[in-house]
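Fold this sequence, please.
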Amino acid sequence: MTTLQPEPVIFGELPLTIEQVVGLAQRRARALLQDDPGYREKIAKGARFLDSLLDQEGVIYGVTTGYGDSCVVAVPLHQVEALPRHLYTFHGCGLGKLLDPASTRAVLAARLQSLCQGVSGVRVELLERLQAFLDFDVLPLIPEEGSVGASGDLTPLSYVAASLSGEREVLYQGERRSAAEVHAELGWTPLLLRPKEALALMNGTAVMTALACLAFSRAEYLLKLATRITALNVVALQGNPEHFDERLFAAKPHPGQLQVAAWLREDLAIDAPTAPLHRLQDRYSLRCAPHVLGVLADSLGLLRQFIEIELNSANDNPLIDAEAGRVLHGGHFYGGHIAFAMDSLKNLVANVADLLDRQLALLVDQRYNHGLPSNLSGAPAASAMINHGFKAVQIGASAWTAEALKNGMPASLFSRSTECHNQDKVSMGTIAARDALRSLELSEQVAAATLLAANQGVWLRLRDGQQSVPAPLAAMREQLAADFPPLLEDRALEGELRLCLVRIRAQHWRLYA
């Protein structure tokens, strides 16, 4: 297990950040629950208010009625206690791959934070058990497919509700085990979910929001990595660093675009003497890199706002206002903001993949790479004719880029009417989030390929004594050299590409302040 950070993440009245959710997902931080008496009373008051309504035989959606279109079906009081189990039981129909451990931790964190807003009518004990699942790393096995994103992530979150109740399976200490067995081993009594608690757990946007937090973090790093790769390629292709001049960008001052140009100037030591220029104007994939990457940079602020507001919201239905003595029926389970954020993000990162793929195509082609060997092969003249360097890597990058671009269709446009036309307009936010993660996976693969090729291109320039490398890039090349030796004779590069992906996903290289 990764060593935990000393600073815990406290669930309660204070908002959480994307970075805190990612820290929990990666086991770099510990989850704690706000524990002051005032806060505990705030949570308990909502549960007591629900109990009082039951005593008065009040009509409450999902508590004394059926679910969804069945809200017109009254549930007699002697059946109310059985209703929560039926809800998570009939939703136990998820398919597809299981969410990985990091994603599952993020789901637990997102659901806990929503319930901590104090308007879901759940007990303190439920919050404590969710926190304990995070603390002891008890991870429900959640199939990733089956949610339309309204009424929230019902089917995937049913696996959380069932696991808290000692049913279905969990991952614990690296093993797939029954939830009941793990409860017994830890000395816990499985929860008997109270009226509204299964609905509060399931009727929300926790899965899409959790995946969005992870996607955001990866995209933020990809932005910086793509900028560094671009700088390496400017050197490898003997490009014109004046394309990133500060005065030029002052004339079109999109903040993210300005930032990317500033990073490139820093990497390229733009005020230092440069090699002779082959072209007055480089091709767009170099010259316009700040404009392409700047769109992602400028969008991250809005995407963060959408994700963090959703993360720190009560997004189940109905909401319980114990202070005013009201039950508020609405539709906060609708994941439209996350759907838009993730549909946007997958297009933004696919554009990054496309940019890097174009740079790689320039690197390997003798017509455009200004004197580098064909396909960046470092083979000596005697064996150059049988060596093909990065030829197949460029083909692979083209395939990964094409798939990322194909994946750009907005999932939110594919709303389907479900559940007897009660859920007749749905967000598809969870599909959008899964799509965004797939697009990131593909774009990271393109980044890995282009990084290794760029590093090879710079090495070839240095080998041939054509130019020096600015200090920031020299430091990066020194870090890369430990894992990725120059390509002299052909070798299978799959292992190195996979190692590079591990480094990217661990955000191994510290890029820019």
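The chain has two domains: 9-204, 212-317+325-505. The mean pLDDT is 93.
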